[in-house]
Structure formats: structure tokens, C-alpha cells
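Q&A log
Question type: sequence-to-structure
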Amino acid sequence: MNGTMRSSRAMSSVIGVALLLGITVLALGALTASIGLAVENGAAAADASRVSDGLDSALRPVEVTGSHVGRIQATDGTLRTVPRTVRLLNDSATVATVEADALVYESGSHRVAFLAGAIVRGDGPGARMARDPPVVASAGGDVLVVGVATLDESTAMSLAGHPVSLRTNVSHDRRKLRADEYRLAVETTTPSAWRDYFEDLGATVTSRDLDGDGTESVVATFAGERTVYLVVHDLSLEVGE
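Response status: OK
Response body:
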């Protein structure tokens, strides 16, 4: 009887040790996976920061006229252009339509987009302006300056550590529009960053899908009649390795 009890205790001990080892292995596996995800996310965040800084240096629509060359680099992710439209409207019609398009870098949940002269950084569900758009409303409420950068480029490529050149040949077209009540609409998938910027300018902001393509525009309404200076900065962008 005593021998049977000792055998049972020994078997229980073996089973207990095996269960403990199994739980430890599972815990270590989960810990390793979480560390791996954290390292991967940290690398993606560092890449997004490098790309944001690179776009800020390479694409200077307001300050540059003529030829300019910059570079961006990331260990992973994709770079592509997507169609985006900027519209200037009054109470009754669309006054001007600019096919600005956006240059977008994505890696996991991290996203950097150059659109109309602004650089928007997205991390997960949030987004913020890394560089403000060239849109200025006068304190007196009688002038609105709308700068819009255009790309004239279509690209889709993977980034894998090698530098990518961004060549521009910048020209500027400036139009003065008569005083009227204006709305500025920017087509974007990161509306919160644009909404915040326009509200800081004192505009009333709504969102609408103006052309039925599924991408909404952030629509900023500026109170009172304003003279608008519309400045289109044509980058004539060329993307290459």
C-alpha cells in the first residue's frame, strides 16, 4: 500500500513538473512574440520618422523654384501616389479644382502622406500634421491664401533599405480671385489632422464626399467675404532609385 502511494506521489510530481514546464514554455513564447512585435513596431516607427523628415527636406513647394533633389530611405514599407483633389468653392459653384494627388508611405500601422504641401503623420488610428499646409487666413478676415502642391507623378514601389530619390522641378502659378465667401475642400483619408488645422484658422469644418468616389473631403468654410490668392506649386515630381 505504501509503495502504491509513493508511486502515485511520484507520478503526480512528474505530471506537475511537466505541466509547469509547459506553462513556462508557453509564457516564454508569448513573451518572445510580444518582444518581437514591440521591436518590429519600433522599427516601423523609426522608418516613418525618417521618411517624414526626408519628405520635409525633399519636397519644398513654397521655398524652392526650379530643380531640387532629395532622398528618403526606410528598411521596409511601400511608397505610392494616390489620387486626391483640392477644391475651392463659393456658395453656388466650384471655383477651382486642383488634382494635387498624395505621395503616401505605409509600413504596418504607420503612415506618412505628402498632400497639397502638407505632411501628415499617422500612427494607428490617429493622425497629426508634421508640416502645415501652405494655407493662411488673415487675422482681419479679408484675405485667404491657398497654396496647393501638385505632383504630376504616378508611382508604386517597395522600400527595402535602399535610398529613393525625389527629383522636382518646381514652378508656381498664382491667381487672384474676387472677394466672395469661400470654402476649401481637401480630399483625404486622415481628416482629423486637416480638421484641427482649419479650425485653428477659425474656419467651420464639415466632411463630404464631393465626387462620390468614397473618399471624403474636409470642407473648411471661412466666414465673410475674402479675396483669395490661389497659388499652385507644380512639383513635376520624379521618383527613382
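Response note: Residues 178 and 227 are 5 Å apart (CA to CA).
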